[in-house]
Every structure is written in C-alpha cells, then in structure tokens.
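Ligand: flavin mononucleotide. Inputs:
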Amino acid sequence: MRRRTEKILGDVDAPVQTPDSQRTQFDAVVRKCVLDAGWAPFHFVRGIDDLAEPWRAHILWQDQAQALGKVLKHQHGDATKVPPLLCGCGAVVLVTWLPECDPLALQNGDCASIQKSAARDEEHLAATGAMVQNLLLLLTAAGMGTYWSSGGNLGKPVVFDLLGIPASERLIAAVFVDYADTQGEVTKKPGAHRDKRGSDWIREVSLQGD
Ligand SMILES: Cc1cc2nc3c(=O)[nH]c(=O)nc-3n(C[C@H](O)[C@H](O)[C@H](O)COP(=O)(O)O)c2cc1C
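Predicted complex:
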C-alpha cells in the first residue's frame, strides 16, 4: 500500500511555487481525481440543490490556498499548522458533508425524527469517508503526496464565510495535495500513527456453538 500521510509545511511569507506549466498539468490531474472520487457509493440521496451526493468538494488551487494561509495567519492570528500547510501544498480539497440532523428537532426533543436523521447521517458520513479515501488513493496512484487533515480552523464559520461555503455543510477532510518539484523551503512530516499499524483487528468469524 503506497498511500501514506505526507504533511508538507511551507513558509507563509515565502510559500512554495510550482512552475506554471507543471501547475496546469497537476491541477488537471487533481480535477480528474476529485471527479473520479465521486464514484464512491452512497446509500441515501441527500437532495440538496438537486444533487444526490451527500458530500461536496471545494478546491483551492495553490494561489488561493496561499492567500488563505496569509489571511489566517496575519489577519486572524492563526498560529496552528494550517497556514504553513496551505503554503506548502499544490492544492487543498475541502471535503464537506451535509448532515440531516435538524437542530430544531434536537431542541424540541423529537426523538423519532432525530433517530431517523441520525441513522441517515451515519451513512452520509460513511459515504463521504469513502469518497475521501478514493481521492487519496487516486492522487497517490497519480504520484502525488496527500495528507487527510480534519482541518482545524478550516472547519470554522469564519473560513466558511471567507470561501462562501454554506453553514449547513460540515468539514470532514482537508486533503492537502503535494505537487512534486515545487520551489521553496518546506518541512516534511509523516503521519503520527503510521508505525502503530498491525493486522490484529481482522476477525474471521463463524457461528458460535458449532
Ligand atoms: C478522519 C481523519 C482525520 C485526520 N486528521 C488528522 C489531523 O487533523 N492531524 C493529523 O496529524 N493527522 C490526521 N489524520 C491522519 C492520520 O494521523 C494518519 O492517517 C495516521 O497518522 C497514519 O498515518 P498514515 O496515513 O501515513 O498511515 C487524519 C486521518 C483521518 C482518517
């Protein structure tokens, strides 16, 4: 399995630069991977904006990712790794999903309605996870480095407002995509739990009592 987390942290004030000709090619690959990732299965039609899928993909290309990184760091005082990640990537894909759980039903304690929408939400979220994993595998197969981050401040209302993402969506993944051959200083880090993997979680089951 070649897929692995590759975190690329750039310098917010001297972000990476991918030469234009390469950037155009890489952007086209990312666009295709996002489109193909959308072949993930989904159980329920979500039906928002006449779209069946329970997920949305918001792509920020390199210049927009870097602009957002600068705004977050210098105007919003974001001292987390998010601005450096935005300034080290070739593109970032913000994958959101659309929960059905109605805050009004929660307030009114409408249990039947809550249970039904919570069950559907589990499956919307599972489908969106499958879409994200598709994206990681497709990008990996195309030779690009990836990092699935839960997104930190990128999931906050202030960022959704800046990017015009509806408040009804919830961020499940900020997929940072590394473009090879970028110019500029970066720090690279692996996934924290990579070496903790094993196979003892696999169970071969049979009928009990036989
Ligand atoms: C839903 C989800 C959210 C994640 N969010 C983060 C995150 O916010 N920060 C982080 O360092 N890694 C995050 N990761 C990546 C994991 O840390 C990483 O997959 C793990 O360390 C194993 O490394 P590997 O992907 O190279 O096998 C996330 C992974 C998933 C599936």
